[in-house]
Design goal:
- By secondary structure, the protein is α+β, with helices and mostly antiparallel strands.
- The chain contains six helices and three strands; from the N terminus they run ααββααβαα.
- Strand 1 and strand 2 form a beta hairpin.
- The longest helix is centred in the N-terminal third of the chain and has 19 residues.
- The termini are far apart.
Amino acid sequence: MSRQSTAGPSQRMLRVGEQVRHALSETLQRGEIVDPVIENAVVSVSEVRMSPDLKIATAFVSPLGVVDTDAVVGALNRHAKFIRGRVSGALRQMKYMPEFRFRLDTSFDNFAKINELLKSPEVARDLDDRNKNNDKDEE
């Protein structure tokens, strides 16, 4: 049987990604990275996606309390090798220590846009029309 390439991540990739996310979060909380851009920011790691061979970990981060989020992501990418060394203790069970890549997490922005759209008068009007039609059908 062949697996489809469009299938989602395997259970192993999800499990390892979650372990890496926890280890990465702990490392960032301890404040071991000496960089003024990162020291002044609280960085939330929302998700870590692992490559199928588990050698690349793409971490989606949300810098909080910072105007220039791209600068924080750039600083994390510059310190990726240092972070890899610090995280390695928590991930001893892995055969290969993954290479870290940091990306800005835009999912919260997307949620906010969808929420605004749902609250817009046009959508509310359409939903009211649908509710009125459903009430008529029930009578």
